[in-house]
Fold each of these.
Amino acid sequence: MQSKLVSFINVLRSHEVRISTAETLDALSVIDLLGYRDRDILRDGLSQALAKTPAEKLTFVRCFDQFFQFDTGAADSSRKPLSHTDEDAESSRGEPLETERPSLDLAGEMAADPSLRSQLETPLMQMLQADDRDGLALSIARAASRSGLSGIQMFTQKGQFTRKILDEMGEAMIRDAVLDLERRQSLALPELQGYRDRLRELVRDHVEREYLLQAHGRNRRFMDEVLSKAKLNNIEYHYQHQVYELVRKMARKLATRHSRRRRVYRRGQLHMGKTIRRGISQDGVISKLYWKSVKKDRPQVLAICDVSGSVAAYAKFLLMFLYGVQDVLPRVRSFAFSSHLGEVSGWFNQHPVEKAVELVNFHYGGSTDYGNSLLDFAKLALDDLHSRTTVIMLGDARNNHGDPRLEVMQSIYQRAGKVIWLNPEPRNLWGSGDSEMPRYQRCCHYAAQCNSLQQLERVVDQLLCYN
Amino acid sequence: MKTLDFPQLESIPAIQQGFESQGYICTREIATAVFLGFQLRKPILVEGPAGVGKTELAKTAAMLLTAPLIRMQCYEGLDEAKALYEWKYGKQLLYTQVLKEKLGDLLHGAKGLAESVERLHQFGDIFYSEDFLEPRPLLQALRQDQGAILLIDEVDKADYEFESLLLELLSDYQVSIPEIGTVKAKISPMVFLTSNNTRDLSDALKRRCLHLYIPYPSTELEERIVNSRVPEIDASLRHQLVAFVHSLRQLELRKTPAISETIDWARSLLLLHADHLDEELIRGTLNVLLKFQDDIEAAEAELHSLVG
């Protein structure tokens, strides 16, 4: 069972459940304590030892059911007969075939034709005829391990592996026999075809299951990598959920990476105990003061996101990113605008991400007016800006030839500690047509192109470093 | 290090029964966690929405085992001086004063500085010793002769650094005090940690614990819980009120009512001598269940369909 548990843990790991060696040992002692009698209790116990977040618990239950269902269905319930059939298969290899089943047509055909008989006199055929599920499952599992099925990576390999396993099992014989019978238009053909199809189905199922267990998780990671590099407007709606997960992961990574660096100590309350104790060596004369270190306020981040039509494809993801960031960084305020601007932090806090993004788009979507929106922003938040505030603008700076209200941007620039502009357009388009980017850029500490999640992560990472 | 034998914790059904006798209805999953935590001597990290009985679990365990419950409420800025130990610096100061007076007697007859220092060394250094140690909850839990239940409540509220402080305690039931050495538990306490998931706990902490997630209960379970906590309430009313709370949980609310709120509500209905739920009664007592004005308004708008 140990090896079974280890391979189960491998499966869990490939599905992004983080399991350490220590936890593997815990799981082993859990199994020792609980035994196998009650599957549900075992599942509860293992999930407590291995899966440590609600999301991981869901994955765990899914994997557990899949992994151990296969076990009970094919091998577990018949552990005893397994070794049994094994011997049977060994011993019957040399003996002539006696078909006990009423397969009269095929048997008659075989009796009449010795070459066909020699072709079909294999343990495999015997098992098929006797409908020996255990034996079949065992020989499939063996053939699968010989053909390296556990290394399956892509769904395109499924067919290939199915064929390999069938060949390993000696299905070629049956295939030839089928062709032979076909040529002779024998009555026994449907029966033999039935056996062949059954075998193929079994192998296909096995491969499918193995793919789900082994490769699905790995592919997920591959997809994540692809998605993080893809341009945001090219990502299809279908992947949105996955992207959100990715964004959250990214945001959390950023938050943990920078939560330490942001800690600054200042003089606060006097640490009486330490001060007196240190004074004892000087006969109780206090000569040096010690302070309780107090955390300095974390810098505040204000994010302003353009949600107008021209950047709609990006906006959705930028909002998701804001949502994710707001979840992990405590002091983020989010604003959205197209023709006018408003604060959306409240929605982000109250609603799930899809709903929040939808609400924002509904209330603030439309045609762009940067000037007006900047005024709104100034009215809402200008007084709250101070040297530790970072303002992030997410937008393409295309103002429909309206008044850019540079003076407002200027005042934001002067008050805030840092103004950062992230533009989804490539740098060489900045300033073309109605883009006000070069003028706004003068009022930014930092401006960058940003149109994939990876770029976004890099930019925000740098940004937090400067703080 | 020993553990105490508790016949109450010998099997999963026994745990369920024992907890039930203390008025805590626990699912098989919770019982499994307690069983494993006790047998493997591992801390149990309990997560779940607020008010599903995470803290209550530890309290009930303490009552069931008649062991002292040592509770440490976590908050931002909690440090080792408040969680582990502190030196009694006032007493230390007095000690040096006393020492100074006695010093003449002690060194009487010593020739030269070297001899005086040597003689001084012969006396034990009690300045940093157990006598001057002020134990805080974590250390207290280790020093209990009869074992203890240690509840580290809302560990997610404490700072990230505080978690590192807990690691040694959680894996080996010991703490290292630089001036004294390692203090090992006489009898390893049973540790419960609770978290409301306001932030992710570190992997290192999670790795050392069994992880139990308590979700909102099913209707049957919640009815049983209400029954054990407010046995006076009428069965049909109990059924109605639990069903209503469950339908409230389906709404998108800022703060979903938890079991504790259901129980409070059942109690208030009992006080009002209600025998069935109607819109007016609910409207009047909704503030027991919901704690935000937004939520109350949202629920009131849906009230008709919820009751019907």
Amino acid sequence: MLQQHQIELIHREIDGATMPDESAAVRKLVAEDPEARALDADLRRVGRLFQQVEAREPPIHLKQSILDAVAQSARASPKEVPAWSSPFAFVRWSLSTLKTAFESLTEHTEMAIMTKKTMIIGSTVIATVVVVAAIATGFPPIGNGAGTIGGDGPISGVQQASRYQGRAITPAEVTLQNPEISVLLQNPEVLKLVTSEAFRTVMANEAFRSAMASEAFRTAMASEAFRTAMASEAFRTVMANEAYRTVMASEAYRTAMANEAFRTAQAQGAFRTAQSTEALRTAQASEAFRTLQASEAFRTLQASEAFRSLQASEAFRTAMASESFRTVMASEAFRTAMASEAFRTAMASESFRTAMASEAFRTVMASEAFRTLQNSEAFRSLSRSAQASEAFMTEANRTAQRTAE
Amino acid sequence: MEETTSTTDEQDRAFVRGYLAGQRDAASGLIDRYQKPLFNVALRMLHDAQDAEDVTQTVFLNALLQLRSYDPKYRFFSWVYRMTVNESLNVLKRRKPTVALEDRPGLLAAGSTPDEVAEVQDRVGKALLELRPDDRAVVVLKHFMSFTYEEIADVLEVPVKTVKSRLFTARDRLREALREPRG
């Protein structure tokens, strides 16, 4: 019976990690002991098998894919991120996925809507649309004053992430600089929305707050391209789309968003590549899609009941096929924004997924008031300015609190 | 000709400095140097070319984006291999254990490899998948990358004696798994 140290010695001899005297001892042991001889022979046989496995050349496109991804990330990641980015900037940012998705749909409208490629696109659309819906319905505003998350009002008890605590916006500034806010809050539908229980629940949602506080979200929100896209007429049209709202409000959508496989697929390198606009437009895109489709994460996602259910819904199909969706994707701003690595990182985050899957978001999305808000000219005007967006949310919160009191 | 470790380290540092200084070809140099070995580490860890590509791309992307925070007192070489192993382990964790190997777009399907070599590759790949992932990482770095015990310890951030223990245990299992079929 071989001793443990003898076994280790034979292993080390195989690895060429013995001293000359140890090597001699191994040779002697192997010559005299059949068990040692068998072990030595087996290990050498295993070693030879490994040697027959030649190194594979990486895919020819891999280097360029890496360089493209790095370049995109570099462009989308400004060195200095503002201390605060507005909820509406985030909305703009999140729509970038819609851009990519529907660009592709535009190119492939003749294709059956439930092809694999469209399924991938659709999943991206879903995720993005949820983000848009969520952010547009509420956002923890800056500071700890009255009417803010973490303040002393009825939705107190949620701490504002310290890195988000930027300059406090005073009520005077809100009123004087942004008359659109008053206009919006005087609208009965909008008022009804911001004073609703669902609105307050969204604002107090821990997962939502956590998602918004992430570094990836902050970085994503810093893009000018998102602001431009968000302010467009096409965006407003999408927001008013009935099918879009139906999808947002559906149980299938909510379940799909809570699906672990979805998040995993989002986090995969291939998924990120497939989402990039350039990839969709070139032959490289096809490779990216093939890679994604072959990935374990995507296969798992496709197999999930939640995902199938969502894709099978009429509302989802209609939303994806609508002219308004394709229109909103037509701008360069969306394409640029989509390149953001931060966006993709944020989409893959646990807190994002949890927030999107919450009942509160679904409720708000289903409300008529939400559509009214999105459709209003005042809202569009506000969304062109990050500070005005913040101010609106602050004032909306304050209004909600006053109503609750 | 084999590069010495110190030469490799110095060239890596030069690429890193160049990249941080804005030299566009520095990233290209690092990718040229490491894409094949990293891809192969991931491939042997995962037995799936598509996943290996994903891992390689993710590792490079993360590495290049994090270079500003990279501490040059550590070896770039160890850093990227460590990220590759860790990312591969992450992929393995996300995999469903019930997925059959035959369902995977594996090694055999992708190349024009002669049948016998392909058969060996497949056997070895499947035998590796039967190892615990931590053990598999040691075997891959030892047998496919020809790393020393010390280099493996550096990459995996474990003591050398742990490397030996994992390697020897894994090889004992491989002896059985790769035994020639009788016949």
